[in-house]
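User: Could you walk me through two proteins back to back? I'd like the raw sequence and the structure tokens for each, with a short line separating them so I can tell where one ends and the next begins.

Assistant: Of course. Protein one, sequence then structure:
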Amino acid sequence: MCYNKSMQILSIKLKSKNNPNIFAIYSSNGEYILHSDIIVKYGIKLGEVNDENFFVAISESNVIIALDYAVKYLANTIKTVKQVKDYLKKKGFNDTDLNKVIQKLEDYNLLNDEMFAKNYILANKSFSKIKLKQKLIGFGVKNDTISNLLDEIDEVQSCKVRVEKFMKNKVLDAVLREKLIRRLTYQGYKWDTIRTALNELNIKGEDL
């Protein structure tokens, strides 16, 4: 996009009553959003402004505003880099500004995909490795990180948790046992893992 060497700032108005730091800047080139800190830093006011400096200010402001959105988004639960990027893209921020925000969040240790993956695995102990991998890939966690963490999992134990949950208040028979095996297979457990888990829980069958 090409801009004139200078433009006119026509008015500066508070963008939203919910955020006293965000202002709408109406200019001869259109409307822009600026954070109050940037308005003060660059001395932006009504009248003529050099557009090169102005668009540097816009970029800095975008990072500040996006960072504020991201911190609020991360306030309640840990998120991945992909989740934060997707959230901020929906807010209209470009990749250049997003990368700067992500870097700041990682520097502050507010974003850590490995920590997210560890917490997710811990909260879903009964998931198979295949299911965990599928879920974590969907969250944007890197394959190397996933593989390293999954190597530490005792999948037989997680399968036993699934079996015990399924069998609670049930009386085992051949039909129920086959249903259990089908469900475990669907959930991503391999037959060797299922067989070992059932043996350790003393759930016998002809194929065990």
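----
Protein two, same layout:
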Amino acid sequence: MNDSTNGTGHEAAGGTGDGAATGLTGRTPATAAAAAPEAAARVWAAMSFLVLKQENRRSEVEEALGMSFFRVKALRRLLTGPLTMRELTASLSTDKPYTTLVVDELERRGFVERNVHPDDRRSKIVTLTAAGTAAAEQAEHILSRPPHTLLALGPEDLAALDRVMAKLRSPAPQGPPGR
């Protein structure tokens, strides 16, 4: 994609427009600070569009695996190793009855096994089967594939975006903006 828009009608980061994507060039610190929330909102909208709508990977995963994205999320959480039902519930940010429903279905489909915890018979441990591991890895493969528009960026744009993303991954200061 050679134009400087991101598909939302807004200038993409690294574009060649009025400087909005490059730090509000030519503005006073006070005007730049006042415009920062607007710029952040535009960037966030562009990022959300890219991740959630432009290439709808959630739907692609649901279609490929024949299950809801939430069930796929449960499989992906188990890739790191077995979890108790309580740990899986917390990891999914849901409630116990819904986790039980999800695990019941995954168990019926042969993706997980549920066994009694060896140290606490009141607790159950959920483990991926080989089929569950394959399904979770397939989902990871689909979800980790970079979008076409990102692959189309040149090396300089990718390097600039990589620097910005590194800053975004750093812990944010606590408190309201401007403090």
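The helical segments are 29-54, 57-65, 69-77, 85-92, 96-108, 130-144, 148-151, 155-169.

Let me know if you want the two compared in more detail.
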